[in-house]
């Protein structure tokens, strides 16, 4: 299910949005990250990675999607599966400080 960002008008999956407690408006992660980075005075660029599919030891396939967020304790990349269009199944995340290069946090990168 896609919803509209109240800030930029982008249509994004509902799970890729945040409702602001200040004004009750829905922000896509791009707008949310921009807002928080401006408020904190921190450089942050939302990065997007293509989903990847991994096979578990039983031969089951797991496709992970990624999202990057600026959170109160630093920069975060989450990897998650989708079940019936919503995050579910296996989830993982990598968090580092505000000064890190967020591109380095993608533990699933194959070029390292
Ligand atoms: Zn937006």
Can you describe what's shown?
The chain has 112 residues and is mainly beta. It has one domain. The chain has one helix at 29-40, and strands spanning 2-4, 11-13, 17-19, 26-28, 52-55, 61-71, 74-83, 86-96. The strands form 3 sheets. A 4-stranded antiparallel β-sheet has the order 5-6-7-8, with helices on one face. A two-stranded antiparallel ribbon has the order 1-2. A hairpin with a 2-residue loop joins strand 6 and strand 7. The longest helix is centred in the N-terminal third of the chain and has 12 residues, at 29-40. The radius of gyration is 15 Å and the shape is globular. The termini are far apart. The model has no long low-confidence stretch (mean pLDDT 90). Bound molecules: zinc ion (ZN).
> Strand order within the widest sheet?
5-6-7-8
Q: What level of helicity do the residues show?
A: 10-25%
Distinct small molecules bound, one entry per kind: zinc ion
Q: Roughly how many Å is the radius of gyration?
A: 15 Å
Largest sheet: 4 strands, antiparallel
N- and C-termini, Cα separation: 34 Å
Q: How many individual β-strands?
A: 8
* Number of spatially distinct domains: 1
How do the SSEs run, as a string of H and E? Answer: EEEEHEEEE
How would you classify the helix and strand content by structural class? mainly beta
Which stretches are poorly predicted, pLDDT < 50 over at least 5 residues? none
- Beta-strand proportion: 35-45%
